[in-house]
Structure formats: structure tokens, C-alpha cells
What does this fold into?
Amino acid sequence: MKPIGWAIALAAAAMTIPAAAAAPSAAPAAEAATANTAATPAAPATPSVIADTEYGVPIPGGLGLQKQVTDIGREAAAFHNNWLLVLCALISLFVLALLVYTIIRYRRGAHPTPSRTSHNTFIEVVWTLVPVLILVAIAIPSIRLLRHQYSPPPADLTVKVIGNQWFWTYEYPDNGGFEIVSNLLKEKGDARPGERFRTDADGPPLLAVDERMVIPAGKVVKFIVTSNDVIHAFWVPAFWNKIDANPGRLNEIWAKVDRPGVYFGQCTELCGARHAYMPIAVEVVSPARFAAWVASKGGTMPGARPAAAPDSTGSSPLSNAAAPAAAQPQPATGATDNTAIEQPATNQAATAQN
Ligand SMILES: [Cu+2]
It folds into this structure.
């Protein structure tokens, strides 16, 4: 008996520790849309939904995945946490135990005459079959997840996501085709006098933006993702969504988010000097508030063109958010925010290419 072959077994997959997971935070979910009372002297655009500290954001010291807010995300996170991670741990422990046993039991002192066995059909069948079964046990839920992920239900809303060096633009082709420009919000110390800066209501540093993408809760949203310049990647961890934004190509992902709130993401393709400074912020609101937001941007709701005005009065908190947002024209926001950063002309130029 010389079962050294056992030691060749499977290398355990490294356990990645992505962004963040649970941490007890007392912040209630985001729908409380009061005006932020923080000192924002020159900040007309108040966020309509206060950023959460539990969902949609990385948490200091957090382990594992962000809390998922889509069905696909929950399925994928459960697959990762309850199956892949457990399997990896068990295999690693099993291999370690075999190694330790062999080292101790068959060391020269305890076992001076080595076995000359070179074949054992039973063991060879076992160490071939067991890994195959393990792979099948991984493949079945994995392929099921892929099937769910890539067979989207019919979309209720389409948002065209365009990566630019170094900001995002979001177009709403179903709602009249208006476009919003989303730039990183500067910190208080970096903003020039009169310029808007980040407050805690906007979100964490390096993630908060001046104009969030807004989508309705409980609706299937299709994201058509492309780029104006180089390859970027659109990623919102809480949605389990990540896809490249390639110039000249349209990629598609989708999400159906039931929980209203603000969810942050980042560009995840190294795209240039300010790659780290083009965050993504998606605000999920009730359909009525979404309709009011669309109206505030000069857009229309498909099928119900005159209905936009009554909707905005229907939800009281939103008029608060919609009005200042409407008062601030889009191009001005994009331009002012980029000027103080390294490449003042880029923002305008890239936006014009649209
Ligand atoms: Cu990028």
C-alpha cells in the first residue's frame, strides 16, 4: 500500500472575499425621503432617497457578498455560500487529512519497508469517479443559474448604460429618450465654492454621484450596456450584475429589484487614469415615484402620456426630490463636476458623441 496518488487530489479553490456582507446597522431602508438637513449651501439637488448603510454599499470589515436584492442574486449567493464554499472547505480538509495521515503513518521510522504496490483498480476507479461526481454536482446548479440569468422575462423598462472616461450616462429610450449624466460627487474639501459636494445622504465617499440612475421597484429592467471610448464594465454588486461596456457593441443584462433603496457599484474594467472614480448609483423607487421622476426630466411614460403630471402630485415625498433635480439642467451638472478634476474637456466631448 502506497497511496501517494491520493495526494495529487483537487486543489481547493481560493475563497474570494468580495465586497461586503452583513453588519448590524440601524439605518432603516431608504424610502424616507426627507430633505437632507446637512449643510449643503450650494447643493440644490438633494438625493430623493437617502443612501443605506446596510444594502447596496460595502461595509468596513465585511465578509462575503453584498446582500442581494434580486432573485438571481439570491440564487447565486445561496449557491456560492451554501454549496460551493462548503464543498471547497470539505475537499480542502479531506486532502489535508490524507496528507497528514500519510506523512505520519508511512514515515520511514514507522514503516521502514515501503509497499511495492503500483496498481489498485478499486482506488483508481474511486479517485476518478468521485471528482467527476463533484463536478457534476457543481455543474447542475451552475447551469441552472446561468439559464435563469440569461433568459430574462420581458422587460418593463430599458435603460441604456453608456460608459465614458470617466463617468456614466444613462438613456431612457422607453421614456422619450432623455439622458442623464452621472458624475462622482466631490468631497467637501475638494469642491470649489458654490459647487455641490457629497453628504452622507448621497452615499459613501467614492461611490456617491450627482445624478443617480432611477428605476422602478418590482419591474424588469433591461440594461443595454455600451461605451463611448474604451472598455468599461457595469457592475452593481447587490444586483449580481456585471457586464462589459464595449465601444461599438451592445451588451445586455437585466435586474428586477423588489426592494426600494440606493445601490452602489463601480466600473470594473481598468479604463484609464480615473477608472476608480466613475461609480454607479442606482436608485430604486416605487413606480409612481419613478413616473414623477421621469416627468421631472422631461420624459414620458409609455402608454400613459398625460398621466405624468397627476403622478408627481400623488407621491408627496418625491416632489421634494424632483423639483430641485429639474431645476438643475443636465449638461451643467456634468460639466461643473468634471471641471475641477484632471480632464475638463473630456466630459463635454464624450457626452457630445452621443
Ligand atoms: Cu470605466
Q: What stands out?
A: The longest helix spans residues 71-105. Residues 139 and 303 are 43 Å apart (CA to CA). Confidence is low (pLDDT under 50) at residues 1-44, 306-354. Residues 163, 232, 267, 269, 271, 275, 278 surround copper (II) ion (CB under 6 Å).
